[in-house]
Design brief:
about 250 residues; alpha/beta; Rossmann fold; seven-stranded mixed sheet; about 35% helix; about 15% strand
């Protein structure tokens, strides 16, 4: 019998440490499949941050650099400028990118650094125990908002793609979700485009991926997907937010 589905060559055989139902594993596979299709694993450098994906480098057959909390875009800038022929991408959560790393994210975008940012948005701090994040939804319950997020005192959630789209240096920003086979395919297409943008020196690209966090949401995996669909997708509409790259 012919084998028609297998592990991507760019993905290691190590079992993942993520919680059951977490979206990281799906996104990891998507990235590895794209690396295989573009045949870029040998010249790709992944920048891993602090967060649930702090050891994501264990799962990819490519080089990686560990960045201090929030500094992945700055580290990616240095790696890319030192080796312009490499494909450099960051893999960041909402706390790492939208809180402590907001300055690095915005200024890398202002400079239109020719890097790719993969932004995992699960609306909560995952690794540190489920505190409110910049992306936490209004009225969402977290460890630090037990009565729900009060926008009067904490503000509204930050819509990263819409925010970055106002910056001239941002050439491509798209928001996707990994809840269904159709949306997983759309996510892969977005990641593929973002990597091709970098190959073609288009400038700064970001793919924001709405993701689940069953453990810190207090839901089982099936419930968490439904919650994401019914709540997150309303606050964070899916689709291309900005594209100035043309077809690549």
């Amino acid at each position: 019998m012919a084998k028609i589905f297998s592990r991507p060559k760019s993905m290691t055989k190590l079992n993942m440490h993520y919680c059951p139902g977490c979206s990281h594993g799906i996104v990891h596979r998507i990235i590895a499949e794209v690396m295989d299709e573009l045949q870029i694993a040998g010249k790709t450098v992944m920048i891993t941050p602090v967060g649930c994906s702090v050891t994501a480098f264990n799962y990819f057959n490519c080089d990686a650099v560990q960045a201090p909390h929030g500094r992945a875009p700055a580290v990616a800038t240095g790696v890319k400028r030192a080796n312009p022929g490499n494909i450099v991408f960051t893999y960041q959560g909402d706390g790492d990118l939208a809180a402590i790393g907001m300055g690095e994210t915005i200024h890398a975008a202002v400079r239109s650094e020719n890097i790719t940012i993969i932004f995992i948005n699960n609306a909560i701090y995952g690794m540190t125990g489920g505190q409110m994040a910049p992306t936490t939804l209004p009225n969402q319950i977290t460890q630090t908002s037990p009565m729900g997020r009060d926008v009067k005192s904490t503000g509204n959630p930050v819509k990263i793609c819409e925010l970055l789209a106002q910056i001239d240096g941002v050439k491509y920003a798209e928001r996707t979700m990994v809840d269904t086979a159709v949306n997983i395919r759309k996510t892969k297409a977005a990641v593929l485009k973002a990597f091709k943008n970098q190959q073609n020196n288009k400038g700064f690209s970001i793919v924001e991926i709405l993701s689940t966090c069953p453990t810190n949401w207090g839901l089982n995996p099936i419930e968490s997907v439904k919650w994401m669909q019914e709540n997150m997708a309303k606050t964070y509409p899916l689709g291309v937010i900005k594209d100035e790259t043309g077809d690549v």
